[in-house]
Write a structure and sequence with these properties.
By secondary structure, the protein is an alpha+beta fold. The chain has 10 helices and 28 strands.
């Protein structure tokens, strides 16, 4: 028995992924061969099993792309290869049409691949993202590109090039991609239990038994992924409602559930206490609710966000990352369905810098800047100070709004840091001055 334990110890301790340990094991086994052949055979079997285990583990790891979500950005960044020559991290964004691929313009300038080296096929002003009205120049190249994702090669028929770093205010953002439009052979696993993306061949792959299975349904936008989900919601005041709708699956959106104007449920939520948060050209109201899905699956502290402005999103109902993070998510492209496997370690991603919304100022048709919205909640100091919807803003702290252009980025940054803001406005044709004192202890984050 002592001899068996000694050989076992040498076998188990000698194996390392670099292969040197395996050679040492064989040398040691050779020395022991004349001592006791049965024990040596047993050791060789253990060695072979370990080698196979290492090989399988390495192969599995190579098919996985691990990610870490930055709370300040809340994007799922996946490392991909471009045409066998470049490696870059791109946002995995299912909120765009299938087959979507977009690369940052500065990255393209630094690495001039044939796919975008020449003149673009189309060049136009386009909306930056669906959550804003802002536009910028965008180039479209109808050249096929091959991406290597999780060790799997796949082709994309076109590529958008735009200034993603400026649009997303993130120097690390090099663009975004989606599942190929013609993919019918893969299952894309977005594993939030261990934070990785893995792509499985659909043939022979079996979804976990505990998965909720939702067929993809046709939505308002072609080739974007939608599913119908029945949500039974209990609000903080005890009111209940059922939201049984077709939701777009948007991994590029950080929030749990979003209802956009003119969703029928907006009227019910407007009467309830909300947390107002700002985003891009507008604002949203956040409601924390308890919800049940498929009868008995409970989701405590689910957050529902409502938008009065439809922006450029193009749909009324969406589920985003903080909804999906409660599951391991399977995009079964062969069978046209979504698999949701519940996990125990749900971790909400919160942006600590996301700020409360107070008021919105926009230019009218004459280029004058008008207060078009003031958030209606007791702690809104801008409302308490006396600002009203319809006021024309002429200047803040002496920095004037230029007709049709507003404040420069530099002046806006200076004003943002100041603890007191003095508004010069025009109301009913009369000039007024209103002072707002900021609250440094205001709760932030979302």
């Amino acid at each position: 028995m002592k001899k068996i334990r000694k050989i076992k110890q040498k076998v188990s301790c000698g194996i390392k992924p670099d292969g040197r340990g395996i050679c040492r094991v064989f040398r040691r086994l050779t020395v022991c061969f004349m001592m006791d052949r049965p024990f040596v055979i047993f050791g060789i079997i253990c060695c072979c099993v370990s080698m196979l285990s290492i090989a399988c583990h390495t192969e599995t790891e190579s098919r996985r792309a691990y990610f870490k979500v930055d709370p300040a950005d809340r994007k799922i960044m996946i490392p991909v290869g471009l045409n066998d020559s470049l490696s870059v991290d791109l946002v995995f964004d299912t909120g765009a049409a299938l087959g979507y691929l977009s690369i940052d313009s500065s990255f393209c300038a630094e690495y001039p691949l044939d796919a975008w080296k020449g003149a673009p096929d189309v060049m136009a002003e386009m909306v930056d993202v669906g959550w804003t009205y802002d536009k910028s120049s965008c180039s479209l190249y109808w050249h096929p590109l091959e991406l290597a994702v999780c060790g799997d090669r796949m082709k994309y028929g076109y590529c958008f090039v735009k200034n993603w770093k400026r649009i997303m205010n993130n120097a690390a953002n090099n663009g975004a991609f989606n599942i190929p439009a013609n993919d019918t052979t893969r299952v894309w696993e977005l594993n939030f239990e261990h934070d990785y993306l893995e792509i499985h061949p659909a043939a022979g792959f079996v979804l976990p038994e505990e998965c909720f299975l939702l067929p993809f349904v046709e939505g308002q936008r072609d080739s974007t992924l939608y599913v119908r989900i029945p949500l039974k919601v209990t609000c903080a005041d005890g009111d209940t409602l059922t939201i049984d709708r077709t939701f777009m699956i948007d991994t590029g959106m950080p929030w749990d559930v979003v209802l956009m104007h003119p969703a029928e449920e907006l009227g019910l939520f407007e009467e309830k206490e909300a947390v107002y948060t700002g985003y891009g050209n507008g604002s949203s109201r956040r409601y924390t609710v308890d919800a049940r899905m498929f009868g008995n699956f409970a989701m405590d502290s689910l957050r529902i966000y409502t938008f009065d402005d439809p922006l450029m999103v193009g749909t009324q109902y969406l589920i985003g990352q903080n909804f999906l993070r409660r599951f391991n998510v399977f995009f079964d492209m062969r069978n046209g369905r979504l698999g949701l496997q519940p996990i125990r370690n749900f971790r909400r991603v919160v942006n600590p810098n996301h700020r409360r919304f107070h008021l919105l100022v926009r230019p009218d048709t004459d280029g004058r800047f008008i207060v078009v919205k003031i958030a209606d909640y007791a702690e809104n100091r801008y409302k308490q100070a006396g600002l009203r919807e319809g006021d024309e803003v002429v200047a803040v702290n002496g920095y004037r709004y230029e007709r049709g252009k507003g404040l420069s980025d530099e002046n806006a940054a200076v004003i943002f840091k100041q603890d007191t803001k003095v508004f010069d406005i025009v109301r009913d044709g009369k000039p007024l001055r209103i002072t707002v004192t900021e609250n440094p202890n205001e709760d932030q984050g979302d």
